[in-house]
Amino acid sequence: MYLSRFLSIHALWVTVSSVMQPYPLVWGHYDVCKTQIYTEEGKVWDYMACQPESMDMTKYLKVKLDPPDITCGDPPETFCAMGNPYMCNNECDASTPELAHPPELMFDFEGRYPSTFWQSATWKEYPKPLQVNITLSWSKTIELTDNIVITFESGRPDQMILEKSLDYGRTWQPYQYYATDCLDAFHMDPKSVKDLSQHTVLEIICTEEYSTGYMTNSKIIHFEIKDRFAFFAGPRLRNMASLYGQLDTTKKLRDFFTITDLRIRLLRPATGEIFVDEQHLARYFYAISDVKVHGRCKCNLHATVCVYDNSKLTCECEHNTTGPDCGKCKKNYQGRPWSPGSYLPIPKGTANTCIPSISSIGTNVCDNELLHCQNGGTCHNNVRCLCPAAYTGILCEKLRCEEVGSCASDSGQGARPRGSPALLLLLLLLLLTALLGTASPLAF
């Protein structure tokens, strides 16, 4: 009796496990571009949307300062101590390594003591504004994946703007304004990211959260990427499927998190007071010890690898695409217009591979290596794909209803199995209870 019951339970587990296959524990890593599968036609490639991993992008940037001679130390000058603005016997000297503060120290390893930092000249030309533009350039399109964090060694600026460019510095748009008084500095009411919502997530705000002069523990400025992600993925970013769906279907949202360059515009140094102390101008300057920018190369979901060679980042493109961002089809693979990959459907997405041009196909329309029929189509003598009733196209890549414009959201064409892991587990527990003869109720 027990053997029979055990075999029944085992058979049930195998059945439920097979049903749960479309529901992975981790949704959508997109870390594989293709994998080989077995079909009636033999081994074929199954293509998926894919992207590089997120990484520290400060390793690959170039930094430029404007004005170019704004870094302290040439000529040498004294400045006031960070913790005591009236102890003004510290020295900055560009000709002495121990006393120099060049811009590359914003991006070096911060694990040793004392901390290293870039520092500007002091406000010795007051009342002329002390303003600095720090431009970070990648010569590559980058998708931000974490907060931008700027750590100041001086007090945080009274006024600052973080800007972005999507066209390699030709044009700029504000990302966020920072001020001790937003209304006075930028004629904007102060806000925080917590005041936003899904519908206003792209709003450019001015915040007073990060402009508190010389106060203790007031060194860090954030641009909150993750808080904006959370409007779609939940506070702990667990529902990434929802975020990916929004990025996939809303170009403005996708572009919001995409950059080629960042610019930090320092407009007024920390004063800690309403009036500038003209007798101690050496206490006013900018100093930045660390800048963190995490992101990934934008490869349009056509690559998992981004290489750094000859001071340039370039995607190693798959899916018969090419270009620094995999933004076009390779020669002889222009059988349909290029398209970015899609995060949907979760978890593998849609590769949107480039297919051979009609002129280059000849008699070899499909095979078992690169040109496999999609969406359940079968390859007939390497000459044509035999498509299921719902699909059409050279490689069965299109829904037939799209050609006549009659696709409906509830048509069921291309639909994936419905249900949820929780429901299936409940079914399993109920059946196990029946098999084991347990009469006690289940608690959830």
List the helices and strands and how they pair.
Elements (H helix, E strand, L loop, with lengths): L1 H18 L14 E6 L2 E6 L7 E2 L5 E5 L10 E3 L10 E3 L25 E2 L12 E13 L3 E5 L6 E7 L7 E7 L2 H5 L19 E2 L12 E4 L1 H9 L6 H10 L1 H6 L1 E11 L18 E6 L1 E4 L8 E4 L2 E4 L5 E2 L5 E2 L28 H4 L16 E3 L3 E3 L4 E2 L5 E2 H5 L16 H16 L8
Parallel strand pairs: 11-12
Antiparallel strand pairs: 1-2, 3-16, 4-8, 5-6, 7-15, 8-14, 8-16, 9-13, 9-15, 10-11, 10-14, 17-18, 19-20, 21-22, 23-24
Helix pairs in contact: 1-8, 3-4
Describe the structure.
- This protein is an alpha+beta fold and 444 residues long.
- It is 16% helix and 24% strand.
- The protein has helices at residues 2-19, 182-186, 225-233, 240-249, 251-256, 358-361, 400-404, 421-436, and strands at residues 34-39, 42-47, 55-56, 62-66, 77-79, 90-92, 118-119, 132-144, 148-152, 159-165, 173-179, 206-207, 220-223, 258-268, 287-292, 294-297, 306-309, 312-315, 321-322, 328-329, 378-380, 384-386, 391-392, 398-399.
- Strands 3, 4, 8, 10, 11, 12, 14 and 16 form an eight-stranded mixed sheet that branches.
- The protein is elongated and about 90 Å long.
- The protein starts with a helix and ends in an 8-residue tail after the last helix.
